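Section: Multi-chain targets

For targets with more than one molecule, the full set of components is provided together so that the structure can be written out for the assembly as a whole rather than chain by chain. Components appear in the order listed by the source. The example entry contains two components.
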Amino acid sequence: MTNENLNLVEWALDYAKNEGAKEVAVNFSHDRSVEIEFRDKNIETLKESTQNSLSLQIYIDNKYSSHSTNDLRKDELKKFISEAVASTKYLTKDKYRMLPDPKYYSNASPADLKIFDRGYEKIEPEIRLKLVSEVENAAKSLPGEIITAYSSYGDEFYENIKLHSNGFKGTSSGTYFSLGGGVTVKDKNDGRPEDAYYATSRFFNELPSPELIGKEAARRALRKIGQSKIESGKYSMLVENQACGRLLGLFSGAISARAIQQKASYLDGLLNKKIASERLTIIDNPFLEKGLASRTFDGEGLAVKKRFIIEKGVLNTYLIDNYYGKKLGWEPNSGSLTNIIVEPGEKSQEELMKDIKKGILITGFIGGNSNSTTGDFSFGIVGQLVENGQIVKPINEMNISGNAKEIWNQLEAIGNNPNVYSSLRCPSLLFNDIQFSGI
Amino acid sequence: MAKNISRRKFLENGSKGLFAAAVLPYLGTFGNQLNKSPISGEHMKLADYYHHFGVDEKTIAQVIAEGLSRGGDYCDVYFQHSINNYIGLEDKEVNRAYSNIDFGVGIRVIKGEQTGFSFTEEITPKAMMLAAKTAANIANQNKKVAPVGFSLKDIPNYYPIQNPWEQIGIDTKIPYLQQINEKVFKEDSRVIKSNVWFTNETSYILIVTSEGTVTYDYQPMGQISVSVTAEQNGKREQNYFDLSGRRGIEFFTPENINRLGVEPVRRTVALFDAVKPSAGEMEVVLAAGSSGILLHEAIGHGMEADFNRKKVSIFSDKMNQKVAEPFVTIVDDATNPNVRGSINIDDEGNSTECTYLVRDGILRSYLHDRISAKHYNVKATGSGRRESFRHIPLPRMRNTYMLPGPHKKDEIIASVKKGIYAETFTNGQVFIGAGDFTFYVKSGFLIEDGKLTKPIKDVNIIGNGPQVLKDIVMVGDDMQMAEGGWTCGKNGQGVPVSMGLPTVKVCKITVGGVKS
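Its structure, encoded as tokens over all components, is:
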């Protein structure tokens, strides 16, 4: 953390107070990144960037506004802050608008979450280029009609400073590395199915090998050749670990204090009630070593802790931020999620598949949406038809539809294979009797 | 719902699928900014733009020369200053405001079809030279390039507005939200919650190229969005309505404010009686207006020339072939007055136009940026767009719509024995190569024996782009543009777009219903 940036944050806080703000929270973020996109033996795009952002949350007698800028010239900042304070005064007073009570702030000395790779600056351009080139070679090494292959690499360093006028000060920094491949293959009727495989990691050395990524991307694309829709009906549904985020998203929109207070949640009134199969346990763990979403405080400076969101099918907590917590008269507990751990089961995806008489292995979702107020959802899917434990043929152009209140009770089994290259560490999930629409 | 997705989250999601492209109504986080410079809005001249960004021709020429110093073929410099404002009403009070300023310059160097790119948020000669040096590295020879001279290109103005947003204070905007909120609650006693957002954006852009052209543009945008939750017998429903365009505050007339109060309530309470259609293939009638999302997903993305030049689009081999009935003509148009996706110039400084993707059923043109126009040896279509100075331009849609056809709305509905009438939408997505595309129907009606019967809600529709184009069997004469705030996502970049459609019948497509 440079002193220059710290000084800027302190100056901005003081300046806002002098202009008339009663309470102020200031955030500064700095980010450096490199991205390479590569296709068919050539660099497509090489992009390098450094960016900064300064944001202020301003409170004046329970009036609130939030402002951000990347124009850090002092004269411009002075104008920006003065206008921000001036415009806040026109808003309506809202007695719930104030900084968090300092007793909820994180004051633990930051544990080493292992989220910063000190080797970051030593990565040479040639190494990046070698990686993307190897991903492509690996992808094209698989037999089959590959039309084109694509790969990409990115690395990023960030640092944040957060300062509140009622006593919070926090800093964080970390790195991310990502490597991915995408493959387009030839199919009948001019179709050109594609698929991709990506991994993101906190440490350069922990990325999977380019060979694994390239081959996995190609395997995923090649298995789509010949895809078509099948008859509508109820099928067992096995969802690959990478694709599970779409289904878990049915909870995340509905468990926020905002959704509850705004009466926009199908989970309103269901705290401590069973909302899913008892097989389902979901943990929010901000302290996971090397976790992509690991941290010691949240966006409001609140201390975070490891917590059960759903325990054996029972909804254990809502996500309560400062403002909506006050509106509801509830204590805040951090309104956002970090690393999500779905407690794994015993069986591998292959073993789960063996138990399926007639079902669909979902390898990806496309489009669709859900209604957090009612729980209704409808998503497009691609996948593989499974009969008597074996993959029979690829399918696409189908939808699944239902209601969140029901589908999670239809959870039959959980795999033992969480995706470790994601902040969502969910294994494959098996459901019963899901409504698919096709022909 | 898409409106609950933050912009950042949306972009993150958008960038995850390598080939996926999505379109969502977009809500950012903005606030208020008063006068920035003495001259503002559409009256600014080139000298004012140089002054605004604190640059001069000589410095820019040196930056471009640095960009080409390693043997690049072409270099452009894109200056941007955007001011976003947002105020929100919740629980009957205007109790939140957000603002964001984006300021910087992107420097791009092209060598063949390869791109080197860097940007800086400090518009100083030193920072720009460093960024140019970074971008230059896409090429690898040493070359001495003499700075070029510049000439200003004249451009039309497709979005005149009365007063720049920077002159409209937050105190002027607050009563609009309060009026709408009062109307919403008066409209129906079942309403329990209402959220109203007022957002506006102003962008100043200045583009200088190594070919010596200079262009600038002033791009306004205004939007009011209303979401309503209602309760009846312990059951809750929620829906949404918004109006958006490259507009000034004069767009929010008493009539439009009234619609913003009435329409979201109508859409919400209709859902209490809504059913889910049965699952499977059926006839689908698309209502005139935002149903243009069908075109955006089924054909629009697939016609973006980068996907074709890279051979990943299902339309790669279909140019000049028959793809639809002769009464189907589909355009992507940058020139519709004050419409959300209109642009006076694209983000590479090219002139814009109305591009015919499909004319009388025949596939006629891709949407081109500079690189693809050169690849195909055609004129650029003015489709090179970028989210901001932090991003490279890509071929993108603007306003995508179908021209009116020979049929009448009533005759189209009457021709359907069993199907659905899709009226409002939240989002869509497409796989460019396989052609699978979806759009999510928030509300509509069942059609039974030629008549609209029960309302429906929350169903996804999925089809294959080329197949659905063939299956468009009737086109109405009642073309309408969408009125809402659609944002299209591609490669992690969001840009404002619009879309339109007459009443259209697709003879067979898969509807995500509940019973087989």
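Chain A touches chain B through 89 residues (CB under 8 Å).
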